[in-house]
Amino acid sequence: xxxxxxxxxxxxxxxxxxxxxxxxxxxxxxxxxxxxxxxxxxxxxxxxxxxxxxxxxxxxxxxxxxxxxxxxxxxxxxxxxxxxxxxxxxxxxxxxxxxxxxxxxxxxxxxxxxxxxxxxxxxxxxxxxxxxxxxxxxxxxxxxxxxxxxxxxxxxxxxxxxxxxx
Length: 166
What we know:
Strand content: 15-25%
Distance between the termini: 102 Å
Number of helices: 3
Order of helices and strands: HEEEEEEHHE
Shape: elongated
Radius of gyration: 35 Å
Strand order of the largest sheet: 3-4-5-6-7
């Protein structure tokens, strides 16, 4: 019986000490901002965007330099310029030619199942559009490809201009 009283008194004292501690702690924090700080949120930097209106195209400038090669000004006769500044130079049923100024790179997408003929026509078209020789064209960064659905034999292969390959 005596042991039960000791346990009961000990429990009451612990509870009273806990309550006293809370009261003292709360009263000493008055006037202090005890709210949790708001978590910071990451806001990524804005991606610069380009629009056709932000690119000044002067018909007086008939030549531009890409990868140290002087070529016809592709912006003058562009089919379309997207928000990132990529220039659709030619859009046919067999291929598309796009210039990506950020990478100074040309991409030829073959859209025909007859890959070899479409590639040959696209390469010749690129030479004509840029008004460059095949030697100068080999100095440019040109990637040619197609999708698996169009031609599985040539899909997923990294190719450049055929006349530059050894």
